[in-house]
Specification:
Helix content: over 70%
Number of strands: 0
Keywords: Cell membrane, Membrane, Protein transport, Transmembrane, Transmembrane helix, Transport
Strand content: under 5%
Protein name: MotA/TolQ/ExbB proton channel family protein
Membrane topology: Multi-pass membrane protein
Family: Belongs to the exbB/tolQ family.
Oligomer: single chain
Radius of gyration: 31 Å
Structural class: mainly alpha
Distance between the termini: 114 Å
Subcellular location: Cell membrane; Membrane
Number of helices: 8
Order of helices and strands: HHHHHHHH
Shape: rod-shaped
Length: about 230
């Protein structure tokens, strides 16, 4: 039976299939240079995420201070129970408690000496809070530059293929260099953005803890200035 649409029918095997790209294919098609750059960026990303979450939980724990802590310290100090105030600070594992504990251990000395001891202890606490945070800033700045290095390598590979093609450019070989250039750039920017956001978030949370420490220290010094 004659089918008027049969002549226009396209065989199934001749249908052009759309090429899809996956992250794995982009990395593997980028050549050895691109794979090395991507591996390095992956290590930097893992490092940045580890530092972020480790510092995030440490800073969050440091910011949790019992609202009645200073009231209890006030009651102990005014009642002359210095040992009880010290014990309370030792049992409260926060930077604020350690600062107040340092000040309590100096009670009986001039107020200036107490203030200096608290300030020195505060610098140590801030240093502990900011431990490894600067590494995030380094990653945020270095990752895009490493990605750009991959871009330069990819363009060198592409130009090299053009120079050796003898006037006949092989698109497949040329695309390897372009894959390296584009994928490393994108990967470097992603790692840099993640590290930059993580760094700034930790800085903000650290500042809040520092302000809390300063406020409690001032409150403690005001307590020592109160008339008995």
């Amino acid at each position: 039976m004659f089918n008027p649409f049969q002549e226009n029918a396209v065989p199934a095997e001749e249908v052009t299939q759309e090429k899809t790209l996956s992250i794995y294919n982009l990395i593997m098609d980028g050549g050895v240079g691109g794979q090395i750059i991507i591996a390095l960026l992956f290590v930097l990303l893992a490092t940045a995420l580890y530092i972020y979450f480790e510092r995030f939980f440490a800073i969050r724990a440091a910011s949790q201070v019992n609202k009645d802590f200073m009231n209890q310290i006030r009651d102990h100090v005014l009642a002359g129970k210095i040992d009880s105030a010290k014990a309370l600070c030792e049992n409260t594992s926060t930077p604020t408690a350690r600062l107040i504990g340092k000040g309590i251990s100096r009670i009986g000395k001039p107020l200036e000496d107490i203030n200096t001891a608290i300030e020195n202890a505060g610098k140590l606490e801030v240093y502990q809070l900011e431990k490894n945070v600067s590494v995030l800033a380094t990653i945020a700045g270095a990752a895009p530059m490493i990605g750009f290095l991959g871009t330069v390598i990819g363009m060198i590979v592409a130009i090299h293929e053009i120079a050796n093609s003898g006037g006949q450019i092989d698109i497949k070989m040329l695309s390897d260099g372009l894959y390296t250039a584009m994928t490393t750039t994108v990967a470097g920017l992603i790692v840099g953005i993640v590290a930059y956001i993580a760094y700034n978030h930790l800085v903000v949370r650290t500042d809040k803890v520092v302000y809390q420490m300063e406020a409690k220290s001032v409150e403690f010094l005001d307590l020592l200035n109160e008339p008995v």
